[in-house]
Amino acid sequence: MGGKDKPNPKVQLLIFIVKALTLAIWFATLVSFLLAKPGAQNKNVLTYLLTGSTQLKLTETEMLHMQDVRTWFLVLELASFVWVIPQDVYPGRRTSVIILLLTLGFVTITLLRFDTVWNYMHHVLFRNQLWILPIDSYLIEHFFDTFLPAVVSGFGIWILLWLKTLLPVSSFSNSKM
Predict the structure, then answer these.
(1) Of 77, 148, 80, nearest in space to 111 by CA
(2) Is 26 within 8 Å of 76 (Cβ atoms)?
(3) What's the pTM value of the predicted model, to 2 decimals?
(4) Are 56 and 48 in contact (CB under 8 A)?
(5) Most buried among 13, 112, 123, 175, using CB within 10 Å?
(6) In the chain, which residues have pLDDT < 70?
(7) What is the model's pLDDT at position 89?
(8) CA-to-CA separations, 73 to 6, 126, 134, in angstroms, rounded
(9) Whole-angstrom Cα distance, residue 34 to residue 149?
(10) Dihedral angle at the C-alpha atoms of 33, 104, 126, 35, nearest 10 degrees?
């Protein structure tokens, strides 16, 4: 019985989902910071999110919110380790079509009702109201306008990765995700 064990399709699907999700979130983060209104704190905000090691000159409420956001960045950083796992089996055509249709539906809702989706996302991710910042806060002034393009770009990467699964299997033979 020296043959290679067949990969579990459900585990491979989960691996693909986590890879696609982490890539989409990292890409959206990059877009958000590239589009941010220039400001002295922008680099410090990014450094803080990635390492937790920078002193930010923000209000107490902004800093508390950034601590909450930093927790989610730690989750993202840990989830990104899934990229070291080889992708041997890709999601099936039916699964990919279902996920693409659900994604397109969610993208449509997001584009039509961004404020509603934004609020709901914050209620799900954060157990407090610290994300409700005054309009003149540094984070709102420099980053709020970048979130919609960042979310759209993240969805774009997510959709492209799922579309890739619909290509013929031979397309994957030379490239491992």
Answers:
(1) 148
(2) yes
(3) 0.85
(4) yes
(5) 13
(6) 1-4, 169-177
(7) 85
(8) 33, 13, 23
(9) 11
(10) 10
Q: Residue 100 CA to chain centroid, in angstroms?
A: 16
Q: Where are the alpha helices (DSSP H) in the chain?
A: 9-35, 42-51, 60-79, 93-112, 114-125, 138-164
Residue with tokens 């989706």: 117
Any idea how long the chain is? Answer: 177
Structure tokens at 177: 């995700």
Q: Residue 172 in contact with residue 90, Cβ under 8 Å?
A: yes
Query: Residue 111: which of 147, 69, 143, 142 has the closest Cα?
Result: 147
Q: Are 57 and 158 in contact (CB under 8 A)?
A: no
Q: Give the Å distances, CA to CA, from 132 to 28, 78, 143.
A: 21, 27, 14
